[in-house]
Sequence to fold (477 residues):
Amino acid sequence: MDSESKPKASGHPTEPVQVSEKVSRYSYYALSVLTLMNFLNYIDRQALPAVAPAMQRDLGLTDTEIGAMEAALLLSFTVLAPVFGRLGDRYSRTKLMAAAAVVWSIATGLIAWVDRWPWLPPSLQLNLPFFGLLALSSVALGLCSVRALVGVGESSYSTITPTLIADYFPLKRRATALGVFQAAIPMGFALGYVLGAVLAHYFGWRLAFMIVGLPGLIASIFVWKLSEPQRGAHDAPPDKPTTGAGQDRPSWWHTTRQIFMTRDWLLSTAGYTALTFVLGAFATWATLMLARDKHMSETGAAVVLGVVSLVAGAAGTFGGGWLADRVVAKRRNGYFLVCAVSSLLGVIPAVIALVTHRPMFFLPAIFFAVVLLFVNNAPFHAILVNSVPPAIRASAMALNIVAIHACGDVISRFGVGKLSDSLAAGNASLIAALARLLGLDPTQEHLTSALLVVPLALFVSALFFLWGARKNSKLVV
Fold:
């Protein structure tokens, strides 16, 4: 790759940053590498839900314990995201991301051996606010610890990467570039479902984890070698630079306050938090729901979800980025409008997928629900990176990750499992009554009944995005 095609190294420029609309070949190469790494990231993450039925039989895990394992990943991810966001605003982002990939890849392989470790912690029982009694076996606690280590690696990569892409691509191409990057999520979900289920079926769930963790170690080498782009190379220079030669960087508290006072960041984060609640519930519990309550085979359910995630998710993500860039060219609040409409429309197929029992109805409903869920990805991230100055984008991404996961899928991944066990025991009367109203048996179809919280969360997501679209948003350009 010739030197002219590579972006300049980051640093403190002596002259004002010039806005560039050109996209180099190296930027497309870097986007390809980052997208591949994101693809592998979500394969590793989704391997556990794909093999959850086999793990439950082999290790005697409850729905609550499966949910706790997923929540552990998201909790460590959430807690460490601000740390890596701060580091990403100061140090080499490519080196941080490469190191993160090594961590989560090794941790994924270690899941295969946790129950055989001689130093497993004792079982745990405690009362949690809102959730009641939490009982975890020693094996479940060990698995939670390793899944938390996976979250350590992912917290760095997911926080920093969108800021890097924002520096590789100009504003008018940014949503499309982010759409390509985010399209790796449904693709990774899809292959994670399929690989996990097929490998578990033929070779056992332990080997499945070891195999899916290996490619990330290889791909991390290419991430390490990426050139660091100049921060804000494609953005207009601020009137008053926040940093520069002879100037101190703003404190963490000042940066955090600035981000939370940004209207577009706040409302888009609130809307995507509700959407993340839905995505977490789908990612963790869809395979078990189809196998248990819709009477599909475990392998068949995972393969079907893999195909749906691949086709519908990729179509939604690519289509969302393409559509949003064209709507925003005519309406300044176009990104918010695309997010609001897709969330609102998603309520209908979500309800149909849960309450119907015939594949000819619930499978197309799942397909269209996934399309509409992923339409939000590109325009939401475009709102996020455009709403704050380049110097604090990594911090803004980190705070966003804290919000969407702590208040979103950490709750849904664990909460749906806990709610499912409660419904099976004849509790949770309000949700049980709603389930009966919709024709579900809450004691027999307790997991599907617990997932009725999904359409409600989609409606809440649409309300926040509509609020963001009410006035002309003031994006930083």
Observations:
- The radius of gyration is 22 Å.
- Residues 23-235+253-469 form a domain with the Growth Hormone; Chain: A; fold (CATH 1.20.1250.20).
- The chain has one domain: 23-235+253-469.
- The beta strands are 124-128, 132-136.
